[in-house]
Amino acid sequence: MLSRRTFIKTTAAATLASVVLPSNLLAGPTNKDIGIQLYTIRDYVNDDLPGTLATLKRIGYGTVEAAGYGDGKFYGMSPKEFRKLVIDSGLKPISSHCSVNPKNAQQVCDDHLEAGASYVVVPSMPSENKKNLDGYKSIAEDFNKIGEICKKNGLPFGYHNHAFEFEKLDNEIPYNVLLNNTDTDIVFFQLDTYWMVYGGFSPIDYFKQFPGRFELLHVKDMDETSERKSTEIGSGFIDFRKILKSRKSGMEYIFVEQEEFAIDPIESITASFNYLNSLKY
Question: Looking at the domain covering 4-278, what would its CATH class be?
């Protein structure tokens, strides 16, 4: 098993990429744009972003979703610098998780367009909006305002769920309140498979109930222990073959995400990629 210390030993991208992955871990060629949320390997990203991107490319990943935007910069770089780094690594900067509201939405759009992103996603919501259904309806209004600004700039805007949206309030499912109170033309939803299942619901059921609303998916598996930890794709019990084959989701891109690891993170994301690359969908 390769240690994290070995991974960050050098900042030379080509050397790093050749050191990290034994040949027996590498996937074959892929025609799929399998992506990864960079938060998954945040420590590696923070230590050596160029080397990490090179490693992702070597594994076989084709796209990335950022989680490091703030104050007009991506991971401390200007949008143009970030875009160049990702593209020079052979990857595509498809999406970004960021803090966005109606007041800063235009600036967020400007920066993300310059960074080459095609989607803007808010990863959660303020705690005060989680207290009651009125709070969910209020944030849905904000999402519509943000979505309208993003649409004018050619950027789809979406919301990423966790599990709290499935805890009933006044006998209603808050996630449904968000779906029913947002404009289908300007707000999409990035469905996190792990958190939806953790909350007790089925992605397939949501695809049927709200077809076309889920343009981006966070592909995250769950182990079969009582702790229900996130694990390598294909190692848990979530049926991704069925999820990815659904034509009602509206899915355009998928991103691997994992929040905790029982094995070396690079081995883990390699195993997840190889499993997804083996599926026909």
Answer: alpha beta
Length of the chain: 281
DSSP string, 201-270: --HHHHHHHSTT---EEEE-EE-SSTT--EE-TTTSS--HHHHHH-SSS---EEEE--S--SS-HHHHHH
**CA–CA dist 130, 67 (Å, integer):** 22
pTM to 2 decimal places: 0.89
Strand 73-74 relative to strand 69-70: parallel, antiparallel, unpaired? antiparallel
- The domains of the chain are located at 4-278
pLDDT digits (tens), the chain, 281 positions: 344 433 333 333 333 444 345 444 454 444 468 999 999 999 999 999 999 999 999 999 999 999 999 999 999 999 999 999 999 999 999 999 999 999 999 999 999 999 999 999 999 999 999 999 999 999 999 999 999 999 999 999 999 999 999 999 999 999 999 999 999 999 999 999 999 999 999 999 999 999 999 999 999 999 999 999 999 999 999 999 999 999 899 999 999 999 999 999 999 999 999 999 999 88
| CA 271 vs CA 232, 233, 234, 260, 263: distances in Å | 7, 7, 8, 14, 11
257, two tokens: 């995400």
Strand partners, 69: 74
